[in-house]
Specification:
about 240 residues, eight-stranded antiparallel beta sheet, about 0% helix, globular, mainly beta
């Protein structure tokens, strides 16, 4: 969500990037119900609050295109969508937003089968994309790869490396925790050694993949990231 005047390389950000993750169920009549967590720049809706409810209506055309309508508070939102892979995936983009200059795209994946705690085990790769707030008006981009081994009790250790603005970060050891719920939502922490982030996420494809949303990090430790991670299993042992 960007407003203000660009200054060449950076831009003035009212709320900076937005990212969200959640689960919803689509019914045969085209209604959908669920909930999600969201970060909107400095507004961290975070683990201290309950998830945001989602109530939507979805219409699908014979050519697999469609429209999803829902509300955020008093605002009406819409996303144009395309259904892929025989209904296993939906890609959409926002066409009606609360702030005129904001935009986003959404990827929805069918959960598909159980994703209990004992299935989320083995070696996983987290591919993370984020933006960090440098000061009140400037942010910089960052990306990282986190290779973790997740044990059956949800504890994990691994290595983290990335590039944040102009700085290359060599691999170093990190630790994490994952708690997977019966509805395939999940929560956890990631300890970077200089701060610990709390995250919410959703596992799917029987625990082989997930979307992961960092929500809050220890104040004063490192800059708060605004972004998300894709998680994919490397091997199950």
């Amino acid at each position: 969500i960007v407003t203000g005047v660009a200054d060449g390389f950076h831009w003035n950000a009212l709320h900076a990037p937005i990212a969200g993750v959640g689960v919803y169920t689509v019914k045969p009549d085209g209604t959908a119900d669920g909930s999600y967590w969201m970060v909107a720049g400095a507004m961290d809706f975070g683990p201290r609050l309950t998830p945001i409810p989602l109530h939507a209506t979805i219409s699908i055309n014979p050519d697999c295109t469609g429209l999803m309508n829902y509300s955020f508070g008093s605002y009406s939102l819409s996303e144009e969508l395309t259904v892929l892979d025989n209904g296993n995936e939906i890609r959409s983009m926002a066409v009606q937003t609360a702030v005129p200059t904001s935009t986003w795209n959404t990827t929805s994946r069918r959960v598909g089968g159980a994703c209990t705690q004992n299935k989320v085990v083995g070696y996983y790769l987290l591919s993370c994309k984020s933006l960090f707030q440098l000061d009140a008006t400037h942010i910089f981009a960052g990306t990282g790869l986190i290779r973790l081994h997740i044990s059956r009790d949800g504890t994990a250790i691994g290595t983290f490396g990335g590039k944040f603005g102009p700085v290359n970060v060599p691999d170093y050891q990190v630790s994490a925790t994952f708690k997977v719920n019966d509805d395939c939502t999940a929560e956890g922490t990631l300890n970077y050694g200089v701060g610990e982030s709390v995250a919410k996420g959703v596992f799917f494809n029987e625990g082989k993949e997930a979307y992961w949303l960092p929500l809050v990090i220890n104040p004063g430790a490192v800059p708060q990231p605004y972004g998300y991670c894709d998680i994919k299993q490397i091997s199950n042992h």
